[in-house]
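pinging the channel bc i need a second pair of eyes. not urgent but kinda urgent?? the chain im working w is below, pasted from the shared doc
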Amino acid sequence: FEWSPAGIRPSDAPSISIPLAPIVQRLGHRAIYPSELLRDPVTGHLLLLSARAHAIIEITAAGEVVGVARLRARIHRQAEALAFGRDGTLLVGDEANGARATLTGYRPVR
C-alpha cells in the first residue's frame, strides 16, 4: 500500500502491482504471505521476503519478477526481516520460532 504521512489512510490505487502467478510458478508454493519488502540501493529492485515459502523474490519497480532465491529452511526457520549492510551484505533476520533468533549475512558476489 502507498501511504502518505500527510494522509489519514492509504491511497486507493497501489503504487506497484506484483503479479502472483510468476512467483507461484517459480516457487511451487501458493502461500507467499510477504513478511518484508526492501529496496536494493544498487539495482533499485525490490526484495520481497516470504517466511512461509522460505524465499526472497526480486522484483523491478514496474512489478516484473526478476528472480527467486530459496532460503534453507533449517537455517531460516522464520525469516521476517531484511536489511543491507554498508558493504552490500544482505542481512536476513529470523524470529526465534522455538529456538534462538538469528541474523545471517550474505555477502554480495562480485
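so Strands lie at 34-39, 46-50, 55-59, 65-70, 79-84, 90-94, 102-106. and The longest helix spans residues 20-27. — does that match what u expected or am i reading it wrong
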